[in-house]
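Entry:
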Amino acid sequence: MKVSIFDVAKKSGLSVVTVSRVLNGAGSVRENNRQKVLDAIRELDYRPSAAARSLASGKTGIIGLIVTTLQDSFFDAVVKELNEVLALHGYFLAISISTGMEGGDNHYLIQEDRVDGLILLSPMEEDNYLVELKRRGIPYVLIDNQQESNDAYSVTIDNVKGGYAAASHLLELGHTSIAHLCGHEMFRSTRERRSGFLQALQEKGLEPFEIVHGDFDIGMGYDTGKRWLREGKLPTAVFAGDDNIALGLINALMEAGISVPEEVAVVGYDDHYIASQLRPHLTTLRQPADKIGLAAADMLLRRINGNMKRGASIRIDPELIVRESTAGK
């Protein structure tokens, strides 16, 4: 038998009106009651009728998501969380993989009556999208956006804190010769992680061994490690701008018989799945995808339902995960 809203109300011990308010993203529901309803929905595997809700509300029941790639375990985890949370509220997630180079006005998701709202995950050329979204009156939320000027409706990671935490961890272990391998300058995360890293070193009166710019990929870390080996000079510690760079660097060092972390300590960023699978297990900064996805979905639902009149940005702290790739000098 199909589960109904009445079953959810009975399971949660709350009224049908309260359940309905939770499903519609109303801001008037107390948080503990909201959680009881969501727990009941999950346990009963309740799915609101999208067709009925669409007829009643005049909405499509679809949320659009534009992302530059899904070949990234952090993005993948955020998308999974978004999909689960929005499904609990009766929405389907329509995903588009796009670099944004074509401009927002040409994107098929940004058309009249296509979606009830849109999420941009780590967008490039975000201004193109926002101009059109605002013109068409489509509620939106940005995740990991590049421009601070667009933070009005956004969920971001405090990457300055992340870079500072990575450098502080290495400094506390006694390292003073520390390099930073960072991603492309177009990314806000690159600039912020480097800023936090430099701040921690400057507080100790230190200069970085080297700052290397490149792409967020394994090849960048590998090539840098090979260059250092050819030049016959190595730092004692490295803060890599993401886990891919860190893994590439470790591969180059270990191929040359350089021990990690005994000779070179390495810290990554993101806590990709592979970070805890390869040896040595990687010390890294975890970006909590569950918190990011939940915060973005909640913000968008409140915008769609008219319960969020003013813009607000949410900054979520990363978490230092200490594993085997770092050790004292």
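The domain at 54-157+289-317 is CATH 3.40.50.2300 (Rossmann fold).
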